Amino acid sequence: MRRRERLIGFFIIFVLLTFSAYSNSMNVGGNLNAFSNQNIVESINTEENSRENNNGQSSSLSENKSEDREQLNAQLEIDNSQSRDKANQVKEVKSLTEEIKVHTVKSGETLWDIARNYSLNIDSLIGANKISNMNNIQPGQEFKILPVRGILYQVSPGESINSISEQFDINTETIRKDNNIADGEDLRVDQKLVLRGAKPELTYQDRLDEKLMFPINTRITSPYGPRWGRMHYGVDFAAPMGSPIRAASSGRVVFSGWSGGYGKVIIIEHRKGLRTLYAHNSQLLVSERQTVDRGQVIARSGNTGNSTGPHLHFEVQINGRAENPMDYLHR
């Protein structure tokens, strides 16, 4: 009877060990391996206790089973360590925006030299940097270097992954994967995205046929640049409540509505790659898809959104990124 019980016990251990080995060969997750190994350990403990209580198992058999437990505990620790390593690898996935480098121009370098050194093209440099003069870059000037050919895009009010996907003909899943955006996660206004394969809509071969007019003839209260520990992407103009806001040039309204901290906003596309934005308005006088003329009154100034008083926040966006409006405006 005792011999039969020992044989049954060894058979159970053999089956469980076989199942554990099969699970490892099929790349079953660490949790399942841990579960299987734990069951084996518990089974050995149960079998040993039963034999010791009922049959007075010999010390040699106990020593063998103790060794089995040590081996299985060691395997359990290895499996758990592998699971932790896999989890850490998932956490370490970076978006392309985190892989952007900065290149400092050396004496004698040209844009074409820089692009070639990083296996990029001129459009990728233009699509990530403000370049006002292609043939006159200065030593010490810094350029963002994208990890792939494409552009660096800044999300505007009213935009989504779907609208950006349609605008640049890029798959939505590619945008999410490249920028580490989870399914169902919405974009934030002013969020930066790397758009793989996209080309700037306003290239170095294009020239603005006219300067933009001032949207309101008042003093500037806050310039473009760093402010209060963060970037201020536009120029603020003093604008008493209800002052007329004018289109800086002719174009088509691509957004007219509410957008969080911007309050009531209007965005006009003047040509591919060139847009202007007018924020914190009290009243919007034009609608999406509507065509407007240069100097046309499109809104009334206000204090909507994150604003400390009535004013106009004005942006100029080139290839999807806000640049200093003073480089494009003239009276």
Write the layout of secondary structure elements.
Layout: H1 2-25, H2 30-55, H3 59-91, E1 101-104, H4 111-117, H5 122-126, E2 142-145, E3 150-154, H6 161-168, H7 172-178, E4 192-196, E5 212-213, E6 220-222, E7 225-227, E8 230-232, E9 235-238, E10 244-246, E11 251-258, E12 264-271, E13 274-284, E14 291-292, E15 297-301, E16 311-318, E17 321-323, E18 329-330
Parallel strand pairs: 5-18
Antiparallel strand pairs: 1-2, 3-4, 6-9, 7-8, 9-16, 10-15, 11-12, 11-14, 12-13, 13-15, 13-16, 16-17
Could you describe the 3D structure shown?
It comes from Halanaerobium polyolivorans. Residues 101-145, 151-195 form the LysM domain. This is Peptidoglycan DD-metalloendopeptidase family protein. Residues 46-63 have a biased composition (Polar residues). Helix content is 33%, strand content 25%. It is α+β, with helices and mostly antiparallel strands and 331 residues long. The protein folds into 3 domains: 2-91; 96-196, Membrane-bound Lytic Murein Transglycosylase D, Chain A (Roll), CATH 3.10.350.10; 212-330, Glucose Permease (Domain IIA) (Distorted Sandwich), CATH 2.70.70.10. Strands 6, 9, 10, 11, 12, 13, 14, 15, 16 and 17 form a 10-stranded antiparallel sheet that branches. The chain has a two-stranded antiparallel sheet with strand order 1-2. Strands 3-4 form a two-stranded antiparallel sheet.
